[in-house]
Amino acid sequence: xxxxxxxxxxxxxxxxxxxxxxxxxxxxxxxxxxxxxxxxxxxxxxxxxxxxxxxxxxxxxxxxxxxxxxxxxxxxxxxxxxxxxxxxxxxxxxxxxxxxxxxxxxxxxxxxxxxxxxxxxxxxxx
Length: 126
Description:
The protein is mostly helical. The chain is 64% helix and 0% strand.
């Protein structure tokens, strides 16, 4: 089960980076394939439609929300948090990949590790 989740995250991260680096600079507009009224009027895809597709994918992969929100934003936020708390991660690299300034990335996603906090307190006290 855990392996499926890791693979799913890797796919989502790859898709996100592809969209951010290839598709968005081209100024393409995606039509909503799940709302036929929107298709007939050539309206762009809505975030709700993307989230509905994500929920369908999670349902097929038997990934349960356990009362938490399933959305592209929640997956992105979790991905940022995982990057921020990966030992040896380059914070400037991760911030750039996620489209954040380093300061925003540090303030939002990098938490204080209790073990490192104890080590730094010992260094401070002497």
